[in-house]
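Single Protein Entry

Contents — chain, fold
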Amino acid sequence: MRLFVFVVLLFDRKLSAVTDLFVLAMQPMTGPWPGGDGIREAATMALEDVNGREDVLAGYNLSMIWVDSEGDAGLCVNRMYESLYRPLTKIAIFGASRSPVTEATARSSHHWNLLQISSISSSPALSDKNIYPRFFRTNSPELSFNAPRMDFIKQFGWKKIATMHGSDHLFALPIENMIELLRSNNIEIIRSEIITKNPTLQVANLKKYGARIIIALFYESVARQVFCEAYKIGFYGPKIVWIISGWYESSWWQPRSGESLDCTTEQMGRAAEGAVSMKRIHISPLNEKTIGGIVPRDFFSLLDKRTNSKKFIGHAFLPKTYDAVWALSLALNATMTNLTHSGSSKGLENFTYSDQDMADLIVGELKNVRFMGLPGLITFNEHHDAVSSVFVRRLQDLKVLKVGLFDPTMNAGVRIKWQNPQMPIRWKDGRTPKDSMTIYERTERLSLSSYVTMCCLAGAGIILNIGFLFFNVHYRHARMVKMSSPRLNNLTLVGCFLLYLVPLLGEYAITDSRALCMLRFIILVVGFSLAYGALFVKTWRVYVIFTNSTKQKNIVTDTKLIVMLGLLVLFNVLVLCVWFTVDPVRIVNTKLVPLVNDAEDIEIRGIVKTCDSENQIYFLGILFGIQGILMLLGSFLAYETRKVSVPGLNDSKMIGVAIYNVVVLSVLGVTVSLALRLKIDLTYCLSSGILILATTVTQCLIMVPKIVNLTGNAVGSVDDTVTRNATHVTDLSSRTQDITRLIKLERELIEKERRIKELEEGHAAKDRMVLLSKQNTTSTQSPDTSRTVLTNTTNSSV
């Protein structure tokens, strides 16, 4: 074991009047990070300045005993124990540098009532005062960057943030704290990714979830892997902002020899362009003198003079070392003053490892230390961490530029002083990146033009419907109208009228009304049932009358048919009532495929409001089934009665055409509605157009022939009166025939025709039998005789 002990004694004061105070300095002179030599030079420079001041630690000479920690935690703890058990009481401990070593020593040093201060260690764990109650540091921990990160985010109004960090607690703790800070400021955490090995999956997840602003903490080598993966999947550019650690090398994005990266330097630069980092300020840009009497910018030149411009590892942290020595010196000086003013007989030289009171006094004074150091104003927070200013930097054109200065002493608002307040960051095209694609939710409505067009067509149909209804009522006693059951025709027209109302209750009128949704269903079902149910029962009556094989008179009255129609409508209404009770209809918001505008970074998410219910498909199936059965039966009855030729009585041909028309258009309408239900204008126009067309064709097929017939009969009657003056013909034309008498006469005529045909067939059969019997009786006669008999028989038959 090698132990290097260096005792620095400065003799600026007279030896007889000076008391030595010793500090144990544990720094890595050798090992994986041998930065102890530079730390010793900076500390010695500070000790000279402290001991040269008459107003600081008057009567004392502050010295350091140097121990090589070799960057090993176990070894350093062991050497700390050895040093503490040796003569020369140490009043404090300075070090260590590497965080793991500092954690190990600081966990034990407070048991000797020793204050410990570090100038480099940045582990967030060291801020836990339950474990490290007497530990201080002048180097800000990673946690301290969360405040400037938060202010940076506030500056640009970002509300959605993603995080990515290494699994080491050095990064995990700051991210956990940052997440709490973000949430307390009502900022959404889109995604939080942890890198264990290869960052491929984590980078892909950030892109998948639409992350734009990413706080990323990991080692420099991992950073290169992350940005290489980002380049591969196209997750880079002016829309992406990475906020990374600020302690990387100046050209951190450039691949290093030995690294297995699939990206070139140019590709890495494109991926890393625009990355923002927070870097500790080691040297203040101001010209204000420090407590040591030097201007910050002169520190390194003074240090170079002492060391002949020797380059030290950890060169950037040496100003922190200088300030750490001054902070400890000022705390000891305040403790000395406190002891004097309190009338205590003890001095700093009387400190022992069991003197908890003096140890607490030193810790308390160090908490209150406030002085102008090399980075700026030096103070300590409640975690005994130095509070100092932070540079905000950005990688622009592959150069790390300082764009702002975070000043923790400012009390309100964003505490960042921008170099260019009018344009804090030079964003591409002057546009601040968005934290996410701007999403607009737009409720898709039926266009007014489509709605008005269909309403006009439906209105025209309603006018036509009212005209037909007026004709049917006015001429209900006319023979042609009366024989077609005007009351059932009225019900058909009422059903058509209801169907014309359905387009008026389209999506444009529904908005968010459940009542209108249900009303639309009811009107559609009841209208269809009335319109085509009336046609069905009319055809059924003709079928019953003309297919009755008995001679018994079978009369089917309009009242009976209306009752049948009422039962059909009632059954449909009952199905609707059960549906609306068991499975209530509600307004459902259905999201459409988003429309993305990459240029404007806008995403429009359309929402379609539809009437829907959980089990709607089953109830619609029942209703479609009922109407389908009705249409099939109507088609069958129309086919069976196609040869009935009583004028005005049978509409079977027209009903068959109407049913064919409705079936084809209904199948088309249902298919279009289900396939294009989210295309509001197209669905509404097609379904409404089909409904209006089918309804118009149906009522025209039923009513137009009657109007034409009635008009034609009236013209024919006038012509007969003028030309023939036949009174009996005029009387027959003007007289209304009883429908039952005509039906009976038609049936009797058919029966007589059938009887005549049977008689004719029987007579022919009888003649053939007579001829056959004669042939049998003459079969034994000569051929001549037989021929004569056959001739005579034939003549006789004729």
Notes: The CA atoms of residues 546 and 644 lie 8 Å apart. The longest helix spans residues 680-723. Residues 1-16, 715-737, 772-798 have pLDDT under 50 and may be disordered.
